[in-house]
């Protein structure tokens, strides 16, 4: 595949870059997974300027990953919530965080843990094939150009 | 977490940005997963300049995701191969591609498919908890600050 194809977005890696290629976008999603919904909440947590935050939230709306709903009339105020497509990014973020924790060394403990909603045990994520349950690793899968 | 923490790399999301935050780095990894090993092979496939390619390969070596081995003495030539940490990125890339394919619309067919090494069937990746086999989704998991 050539660069020119990327401009036409045939490659999902290239499309994914619109989300993972931007640090603030990824961090806003992380905060949304942690339960943040208000503009001021995102701002406080991330220490981002209002201008940048507004811009990135608009981008996430345009991509269909977050949506705004009014929670107050005067003055008008909005909540920002994950759409189903945004929620579907959760497992991707989980794998990304797990991989970075294991493979990009840091002396500091990770600032978040991922636990099971059901019983609170810390989860150990692994990608498997839905049909067979086989772990999908470099050794068991193969990429093919179509 | 504040921006200042990110500079100290305590957040694995921030560390992951060194890989997923750069389009060429991600595309070089994709080519490596497709079997490319030679400098010229990466260049032909990606249409990247020699300068940028050399720089990104050095970065991938510095991160410990790829390593160089000589395959020829005169003139000296190298192969670029994935390290175990680089190979471990395979499942992350797979989830990223699967998510983008499902959630960021494109009119064009995806240029790569992922198949099982064992029998060649197209795989359907899902993240599960290793201990219980439960799919890890927005609904079943929870992020906690430590």
UniProtKB/TrEMBL annotation, chains A, B:
<dbReference type="InterPro" id="IPR036388">
    <property type="entry name" value="WH-like_DNA-bd_sf"/>
</dbReference>
<dbReference type="InterPro" id="IPR002577">
    <property type="entry name" value="HTH_HxlR"/>
</dbReference>
<dbReference type="InterPro" id="IPR036390">
    <property type="entry name" value="WH_DNA-bd_sf"/>
</dbReference>
<protein>
    <submittedName>
        <fullName>Helix-turn-helix transcriptional regulator</fullName>
    </submittedName>
</protein>
<keyword id="KW-0804">Transcription</keyword>
<feature type="domain" description="HTH hxlR-type">
    <location>
        <begin position="11"/>
        <end position="108"/>
    </location>
</feature>
<keyword id="KW-0805">Transcription regulation</keyword>
<keyword id="KW-0238">DNA-binding</keyword>
<dbReference type="GO" id="GO:0003677">
    <property type="term" value="F:DNA binding"/>
</dbReference>
<dbReference type="Pfam" id="PF01638">
    <property type="entry name" value="HxlR"/>
</dbReference>
């Amino acid at each position: 595949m050539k660069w020119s194809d990327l401009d036409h977005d045939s490659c999902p890696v290239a499309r994914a870059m619109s989300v993972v290629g931007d640090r603030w976008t990824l961090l806003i999603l992380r905060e949304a997974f942690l339960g943040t919904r208000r503009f001021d909440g995102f701002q406080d947590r991330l220490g981002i300027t209002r201008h940048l935050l507004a811009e990135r939230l608009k981008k996430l709306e345009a991509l269909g990953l977050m949506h705004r709903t009014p929670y107050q009339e005067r003055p008008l105020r909005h909540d920002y919530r994950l759409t189903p497509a945004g929620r579907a990014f959760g497992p991707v973020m989980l794998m990304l965080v797990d991989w970075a924790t294991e493979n990009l060394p840091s002396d500091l403990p990770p600032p978040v843990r991922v636990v099971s909603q059901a019983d609170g045990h810390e989860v150990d994520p692994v990608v498997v094939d839905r049909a067979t349950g086989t772990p999908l690793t470099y050794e068991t899968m193969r990429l093919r150009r179509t």
